[in-house]
Write a structure and sequence with these properties.
This protein is 56% helix and 0% strand. It has four helices and no strands. The termini are far apart.
Length: 108
């Protein structure tokens, strides 16, 4: 077992966890027809997964509430392309806020 620094290991786990939560939100809240297990990090949120502009706005709102973060329009337009970029953005916003994710009660 390699000895990554604890923060590196923690960041990897967090990004993976966030990506899983994003997939769940896409399927359960935004009604993406692709099963969670088949959604890939490099999939385009709009063209591959079929989330329209209203869905993207709703996604940002859900993420802001769930994680206690703010996502500017500029950050959203740059990072709402793929799940990989979006999960990195959410992770960075949580880190900038200086803490663990604020997980609100489950949405379903």
């Amino acid at each position: 077992m390699s000895h990554q620094s604890e923060s590196e290991e923690h960041a990897l786990t967090d990004k993976e966890t966030i990506a899983k939560e994003l997939k769940k939100i896409l399927v359960e809240d935004l009604f993406v027809s692709i099963p969670e297990g088949e959604i890939k990090l490099e999939d385009s949120i709009s063209s591959d997964l079929g989330v329209d502009s209203v869905g993207l706005i709703e996604l940002v709102t859900i993420l802001e509430e769930k994680y206690g973060i703010e996502i500017s329009d500029e950050a959203a337009s740059e990072n709402l392309r793929t799940l990989d970029r979006l999960s990195s953005l959410v992770l960075a916003k949580i880190a900038a806020r200086g803490g663990e994710p604020v997980v609100s009660e489950s949405r379903g």
